Amino acid sequence: RIDVIQLDCEGGEDGIIKGGLQAISKHLPLIIIEKPSDGLRGVLEGFGYREVGRTPTIAGVIDVVFQSTAK
User: Fold this and answer.
1) Cross-strand pairs, 56
2) Strand-pair partners of 52
3) Average pLDDT over residues 12-20
4) N- to C-terminal Cα distance for the chain?
5) Does residue 10 contact residue 37 with C-beta atoms inside 8 Å?
6) Which has the closest alpha carbon to 4: 69, 71, 67, 70?
7) 32 has which bridge partners?
8) How many CB atoms lie within 10 A of CB 44?
9) Facing residues of 64 across strands?
10) What value, to the nearest 5°, has the Cα angle with vertex 32 and ends 28 and 35?
11) Fewer beta carbons below 10 Å: N end or C end of the chain?
12) Residue 17 to residues 4, 10, 60, Cα–Cα distance (Å)
């Protein structure tokens, strides 16, 4: 069971999410991503996710929290 995915991959987030779409669609975890690209936002929205929050990090960067609308 996957409840949360948190990514800070210095630009590799798109590939990781796209590679994990089967697990994401099965478990519908909360997803936290540092500075998601517009393309990645589109992929997540296409799978029924929406932005539900933002969290500043110690480094002053914003992590964006996405949640499935199916839950």
Assistant:
1) 62
2) none
3) 85
4) 15
5) no
6) 67
7) 6, 65
8) 22
9) 33, 54
10) 135
11) N
12) 13, 13, 23
Measured in degrees and rounded to the nearest 5, phi and psi for residue 24 equal -65, -45
* The predicted structure's pLDDT at residue 71: 63
Q: Residue 34 has which token pair?
A: 């540092």
Q: What is the pTM of this model?
A: 0.87
What string of H, E and C letters represents the secondary structure of 48-71? CEEEEEEEECCCCCEEEEEEECCC
Scan for tokens 């110690």, then name that residue.
Answer: 58
The pair of three-digit structure tokens given for residue 15, joined into one six-digit string: 């590939």
Reported as a single tens digit per residue, the pLDDT across 38-58 is: 988 998 999 899 999 998 878
Element (H, E) at 38: helix 38-46
